[in-house]
Amino acid sequence: MKKKSASLRTAQPRPQRARGASSKTTRASVPTAPHALPLHKAPIHPGSILSSTQLTVEGVSKILALASDLESEAVRTRELRLHKRRVSLLFYESSTRTRTSFELAAKSLGADTVLVSALSSSIEKGESLKDTGITLRSLGAECIILRHPSSGAPYLLAQATGLPILNAGDGIHEHPSQALLDLRTILYRCFGAKQARSVTEKSLRGMTIAIVGDIFHSRVARSNALLLPKLGARVLFCGPQPLLPEHAADIGPGVSIERDFDRALQQADVVMMLRVQQERLSGLQLDLENYTRRYQLDAARLAAQAPRALVLHPGPIIRGMEITSEVADGPQSAIEEQVHHGLAIRMALLTRALETPATPSARKKTRR
Ligand code: NCD
Questions:
Q1: Ligand 1 center to residue 314 CA distance, Å?
Q2: 240-249: long-range contacts at Cβ-Cβ below 8 A with a sequence spacing of 24 or more?
């Protein structure tokens, strides 16, 4: 339990030391060889998006404006944006929405993409993340989109390669592009397209976003709880103790806990439902019948407690468990729109990643 509680804190995860990377530079080491640099000293490319903690209000505004510009641009013009630039998708975990939308986003900007997934690559043979990253860089990758089961893996890859890294979900840590697309969905549905181009510290003032379910294992919950309060929103976590430890509210300002689902719904302008991440429960016994009774969002509950709230879900949805089909497909649901906004946000993140110049030290690192 002690270990679990530490992982809910907001501190940047300490990058794991890759196999063979030394923490000391000895006289025999060659300081300019990228993989000989101690990882903790290696620079992170400023085009990287690793966590919501790095996003400023101004930075979020720039991403939103770029997403809108790219979305409305003529197809031919857009295809020239990243013409023939090389983007790698490195996926150690399964994914439908995130992988497909990053890939389609890259392609619609004219980039060449290559997908490396754990099951069909040397990863299966035991190759380390660092070596896989260096290999992709040697093959010309200019940006890597990473999904990995270990929290903090994108930091290690960013430091090992010097390339811009986009975090597509790392363990139970973060999923910043999901939080940005959730934000764009909220802005569109609650305020309209024009207001979805920029934000201030007050954009979501007075709004309560209830995030419900398996908070503990959710990188989506964490990235949203770190982003939305920066824009004035109140985040209300709701779930049973084993999936929502008390200290989860310490993640940052503007976050509190309401265990009673009905009471959370009564306060919510937006309700974000999460699935129980069965693959991460590691031995935790959960009475699913009881869970469903207490925390399922069904039509009767929604009508009684939050008849005007917007319903979100990052997917995959387990219909009949955390949400019923009637609600998921109903008029208050913006679940399909979330997927749509993912494309625009990821086009913006890729453009930002490839157009942001490296810091001089990162440039030296990637020079081949
Ligand atoms: C989530 C993820 O993988 O973190 N899905 C997503 O990326 N849209 C949530 C989940 O797996 O439950």
A1: 6
A2: 240/291, 240/294, 240/295, 242/216, 242/284, 242/286, 243/213, 243/214, 243/215, 243/216, 243/217, 243/276, 243/286, 244/215, 244/216, 245/4, 245/5, 245/8, 245/216, 247/5, 247/8, 248/8, 248/215, 248/216
Mean pLDDT of the 345-357 span: 97
Ligand 1 mean position to 40 CA, how many Å? Answer: 29
* Whole-number pLDDT of residue 238: 98
Residue 107 scores a pLDDT above 60:
yes
Residue 45's CB is within 10 A of a number of other CB atoms, namely 22
Q: What is the pLDDT of residues 164-185, one digit of tens each?
A: 999 999 999 999 999 999 999 9
Residues 43-60: pLDDT tens digits?
Answer: 899 999 999 999 999 999
Ligand 1 pocket by Cβ (under 6 Å) = 97-98, 169, 175, 178, 219-220, 275, 277, 314-315
Q: Specify whether the CB–CB gap between 336 and 326 falls below 8 A.
A: no
Structural domains in the chain, CATH included, are 30-175+343-366 (3.40.50.1370), 176-341 (3.40.50.1370)
Ligand 1 atom with least separation from CA of 93: 3
Of 181, 179, 247, 268, which is closest to residue 218 (Cα–Cα)?
A: 179
